[in-house]
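User: Please fill in residues for this 495-position structure.
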């Protein structure tokens, strides 16, 4: 018969290994914020102080606090069994988040909590754990607590998490470069929290209170990935899938074409996300965003579907079905959800494609003689220069047959040589950077005179036809006031 043998892990080795689970500063802080929200907090403050010899980062909240016994349980590694049923409002799972998230960024974790005017504190110091090779937790007395940095940030009822020995924050940089590195990271933290907790910040999660998060005193801005405040956003019918007796909600959206966004809104979204890389499903567990920007290999990402988003909500009772990881950064839908999602995606991607192409189609519909024509032949798509365009027709009259054939030959080369890949890359990443040829007023007038000469020569100007050709060229899109003045003069000129 086998002999049982106790073989506990080395505290020193395991604690150092746990530091490399893949947390960033943003995901680590988000894990601490989870605890604050689960505790019913409404105010969460994050402070990063680089002014002292020993830089400090702290997260404070005004949520339901802990007594000493509860604090010691929270500081224990593996404080909760992931297989046990949890409260519906619990945002944790493994009982590891506080420790693993903190150790990924610092070597000294201190937690102080105030409940009914009783203050308790405890501290993990990885240097002590490594030195003793044992899980030694320091329980702080009141004198220790009062000497802690920023202890005045502790609410009468609330919790204060303090990170010291921040050995990974600066990336070996010093001086102004160190501060620049930290400020860049804090900017990413703000954007990450604004997305991951956007529904809590907006007060849209029923079982939780609306929260405010501040970083060094500045409120975190809400980032809604579905752009619901814009009237042009399409909200498609909701789907419900039952998994193990629990409802999973699937809510599809189609974002507006970028032309429907104000300049301010466009800049806000563009600096926080890429439409093409962030298309896909947004998976929420109890209202907290877990994973996003993925179609789960059900369809490939593409330019035509970049406006499609799907909000998926599931309760924490289904954690195991979704294979949630410790960092809460990965989620894979169970098969029943995948099957329904595949059907939903088929519907929404076609809608997204229509919205994305609408601007080009609308332009072709509004212009009777477009410069370019789109052909779909047996499933193949191509674009060619319109040979019936009035400008080309006028040039034909002024050219010999040989010259005109040469011109058509060159236009065929132009049509076949469109740099589609380059245009696709540039347009998908920065659509509003595409602008007409820059022209000053004198250049606009000169172009209009040349176009008039090609179309009408010395004959009377057909203003309606002239305007149609001008619109089709797109050269004058940003100078239509000059165009209208020019056309008015053309009308008034004696024949």
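Assistant: Residues filled in for all 495 positions:
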């Amino acid at each position: 018969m086998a002999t049982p043998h106790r073989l506990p892990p080395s505290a020193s080795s395991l604690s150092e290994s746990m530091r490399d689970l893949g947390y960033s500063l943003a995901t680590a802080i988000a894990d601490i914020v989870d605890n604050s929200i689960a505790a019913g907090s409404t105010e969460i403050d994050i402070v990063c102080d680089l002014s002292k010899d020993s830089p400090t980062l702290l997260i404070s909240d005004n949520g339901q606090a802990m007594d000493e016994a509860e604090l010691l349980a929270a500081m224990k590694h593996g404080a909760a069994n992931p297989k046990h049923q949890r409260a519906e409002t619990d945002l944790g799972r493994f009982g590891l988040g506080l420790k693993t998230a903190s150790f990924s960024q610092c070597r000294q974790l201190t937690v102080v909590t105030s409940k009914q005017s009783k203050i308790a504190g405890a501290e993990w110091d990885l240097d002590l754990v490594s030195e003793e090779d044992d899980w030694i937790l320091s329980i702080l007395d009141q004198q220790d607590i009062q000497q802690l940095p920023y202890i005045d940030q502790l609410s009468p009822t609330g919790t204060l998490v303090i990170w010291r020995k921040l050995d990974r924050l600066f990336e070996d940089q010093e001086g102004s470069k160190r501060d620049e590195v930290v400020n860049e990271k804090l900017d990413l933290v703000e954007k990450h929290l604004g997305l991951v907790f956007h529904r809590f910040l907006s007060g849209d999660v029923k079982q939780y209170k609306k929260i405010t998060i501040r970083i060094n005193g500045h409120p975190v801005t809400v980032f809604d990935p579905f752009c619901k405040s814009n009237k042009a956003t399409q909200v498609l019918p909701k789907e419900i899938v039952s998994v193990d007796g629990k409802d999973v909600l699937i809510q599809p959206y189609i974002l507006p074409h970028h032309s429907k966004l104000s300049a301010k809104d466009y800049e806000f979204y563009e600096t926080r996300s890429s439409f093409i890389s962030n298309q896909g499903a947004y998976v929420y567990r109890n209202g907290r965003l877990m994973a996003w920007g993925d179609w789960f290999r059900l369809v490939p990402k593409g330019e035509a579907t970049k406006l499609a988003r799907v909000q998926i909500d599931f309760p924490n009772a289904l954690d195991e079905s979704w294979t949630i990881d410790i960092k809460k950064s990965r989620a894979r839908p169970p098969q029943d959800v995948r099957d329904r999602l595949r059907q939903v995606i088929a519907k929404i991607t076609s809608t997204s494609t229509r919205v994305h192409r609408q601007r080009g189609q609308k332009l072709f519909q509004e212009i009777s003689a477009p410069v370019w024509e789109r052909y779909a032949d047996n499933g193949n798509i191509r674009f060619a220069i319109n040979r019936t365009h009035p400008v080309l027709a006028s040039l034909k009259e002024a050219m010999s047959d040989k010259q005109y054939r040469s011109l058509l030959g060159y236009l065929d080369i132009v049509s076949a040589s469109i740099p589609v890949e380059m245009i696709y890359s540039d347009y998908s990443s920065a659509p509003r950077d595409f602008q007409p040829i820059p022209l000053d007023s004198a250049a606009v007038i000169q172009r209009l005179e040349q176009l008039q000469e090609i179309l009408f020569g010395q004959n009377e100007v057909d203003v309606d036809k002239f305007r149609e050709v001008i619109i089709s060229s797109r050269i004058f899109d940003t100078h239509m006031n000059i165009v209208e003045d020019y056309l008015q003069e053309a009308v008034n000129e004696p024949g």
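For context: The CA atoms of residues 28 and 101 lie 4 Å apart.
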